[in-house]
Structure prediction request, 304 residues.
Amino acid sequence: MDAMESNRFKKMISKEGLKSTRQRSEILDVFLHSAGHQNLAEIYARVTKVNPKIGYTTVYRTLKLLTRLGLAVQRKFADGETRYEPNPEGTHHDHLICLRCGKIIEFKEEAMESLQNKIAKRYGFSIFQHRMELYGYCGSCTSKKDLKRSKR
Amino acid sequence: MDAMESNRFKKMISKEGLKSTRQRSEILDVFLHSAGHQNLAEIYARVTKVNPKIGYTTVYRTLKLLTRLGLAVQRKFADGETRYEPNPEGTHHDHLICLRCGKIIEFKEEAMESLQNKIAKRYGFSIFQHRMELYGYCGSCTSKKDLKRSKR
DNA sequence: CCTTAAAATGAAATTGAATTTCATTTTCAA
DNA sequence: TTGAAAATGAAATTCAATTTCATTTTAAGG
Prediction:
């Protein structure tokens, strides 16, 4: 259930002097109830099923707002598409991406974080965030590797 | 000296049935002789100093060609800009990026690679490539952290 | 329940980098 | 030397991202 997130959203909204609208809550609702890593067109398509009157611009602006508030994360993987992912508090993870079927798997690896800190220290950096993506074939695509490729 | 790279380029070119042109070698020359992580506009600006007749499109196409041949690597960091980096054979590295001054540092960490393989194995993936970027403040920007920020 | 200033909406317009088109020029193998 | 294939460069196109602007909606204060 997203009542919690929904309330968090409303609190943040009013704290910023912004306003709660039907559109915003519909968009948030759709966004939170679909699988992660969606592009704007996909989100817009789903939103218009709920309310066909909502404009693309509003979806765009709402996702941007959600990102600013930390409720969404914007991702750009190697294919160049812009995607949005719900961002429940304290969730952090990296991605495994299949270059054949497009499957995206999230993973979390503590050892990775500490290794990153070690590297940062070596160069005198203070790290706030990172991006880490592994590209290859997923299990089922590996076994089909010799068959026709989906791209190129 | 880039005579080596330049020859490698000519060999690859003819092997593909493509042609050596003055423009291509001028662009390659400029590209290899400047610091890494340049965007197209920067490369174009430098190229036109050598030969003002060269068109933007040709620079664009040549960088695309170099990328296809593996002599260049295209990078998109979190700022969304497209950059190109020379790619001498066997060079692989990741990046530390300063969010304040924009400095980009390359690093290589074997432990990272093996950790990645371990993760891939866990999910049944075969990894071909990865992307790993650490964002934060570099040493000198960390010490200026309290002063005016460069952005936002 | 009103009023109204501030914010939100949505259709349309704009932007800007990436990419393509096309007429002309250049390369290079025979 | 020649001609087919490739390259060039200016201009046009594409397309997602973003902005504009007239209109509508929200919500805080009376």
Summary: Residues 17-19, 21, 23-24, 53-58, 61 of chain B lie near DNA strand D (CB under 10 Å from a C1'). The interface with chain A takes residues 76, 78, 80, 96, 98-99, 105, 107, 109, 111-112, 115-116, 119-120, 122-139, 142 of chain B (CB under 8 Å). Confidence is low (pLDDT under 50) at residues 148-152 of chain B.
